[in-house]
Amino acid sequence: MPRSCLRVALLVAAGLAGQLALHFLAPHLARTWSYAHLGRRPVLPLAAAALVLALPAGGALLAARAPLAARAPAPSWPHVLALALALAVLLVPAGFVWAPRAICIDPWVFVQAVGEGTARNARWHLTLWTYAHARALFAPHVGVVAFVRATNTAVAALALAALAAAAARLGGTRGEVALITLLAWTAFGVAQLVPGYLDVYPVALALAALYLWTALDALAGARHPAWPIAIAAVGPFWYEGLVLLAPSTLVVALDALRRPRGAARLAAAAGAALLVAGLATVPGFGAPFAFGAFVRQLGADTPWPAGLSPTSSLLPATYVATRAHAAEVLHGLLLVDGVGVWLAVVLVPWAAARGALDARAALLGLVVVPWLAFVVAMDPLFGPYQDWDLFAWGAAATSLLGALGLVAWGRACPRLAGAVAGLALATAGVHLLARLNALDVERGRHAAESPPHVRVP
Q1: Is residue 399 within 8 Å of 158, Cβ to Cβ?
Q2: pLDDT digit string (tens) for 2-23?
Q3: pTM of the predicted structure, to 2 decimals
Q4: What is the spatial distance between Cα 206 and Cα 215, in angstroms, rounded to a whole number?
Q5: What φ, ψ does residue 289 adopt, rounded to 5°?
């Protein structure tokens, strides 16, 4: 076994052990909202300890098993839709039983807008229009909260299915695909949006996941590049933050150009993207390609005067440069996907230096990097603790990128791969035990640790 394998394994394990220590010891730091409350019920520390003891050992035992080493098939649209439907059947009822409690006013603003039916907000233009009309058409007598809770859970089920399909494009064997899928599904930014979440972010997660899956399919030569490029083009009309997908379409475009009839295929993809973006303005604006009206409405609907900067939705540079902001960003990353981010930080550079990565890593990286810039620069009006979901959908990309790095390292270091993979899954599981549906616990204390930025009532 190469000595570098052991060194890298120890580094990965040290970072994961640090995250576990935060959960088990719950030190009283200046900010605790990313790791607190594993001990809120006596059974949770016991369950967490069981994960830490069982999963690394189980991973080491299972890694070489023949069924897991078999080649994994690539899923088709029918397979993904069938999985999404099966997950929705299971998860929609769970979304009513184990729904999270809102910790700021945003979910109720979204629910109220859906209930009014005529409300407009360009920040969630197509989401709001679709939800309001779907409720009026299919469920006029269902309460708006119940409708949003059920619909968002079904949408999140589609996100989970798309992430599993993306995992099938990143892993080679059944074991690798299962590992990547589990790491994506257990990322807090993914898992917390699943059970009956009452805001726009399940839609953002689903579109991001669909984009990543179709883009990875296109890189494999199994799908026309028009699919991911069109999803990236229409995404901001569903949720404005999905504009951050745009840089990564360059990877899809360059790959398309290298293939037979690449220029024609790319031209068709650009035409499809322009068409769907143009049609996106018909609802609400009454005409296709009404981009000027959409942008003006988006400016009117953006609450930029309410935050720390009187002229921008971004944080002032003087605040970005503070230690307090750096700590809040680190806690935000730990909350949303501490495992995926750490795996990406350690293992992706290692794999890249050895030529073990390809265009798939570039695609994921060009989603993660703009998202990280967004995390650093965007002003969360209710503070990074209460406005954590503003950054949640990025976990779709960080979890896949970190898992891809783990798989690439594991192929070079198979003797250690199973145990490290088990430790990563155990750490993600412990994090969910501590924080899933528990953000409202001691909300006042955590809000004081990272107070709101709102300057106006």
Answers
A1: no
A2: 788 999 999 999 999 999 999 9
A3: 0.96
A4: 14
A5: 60, 30
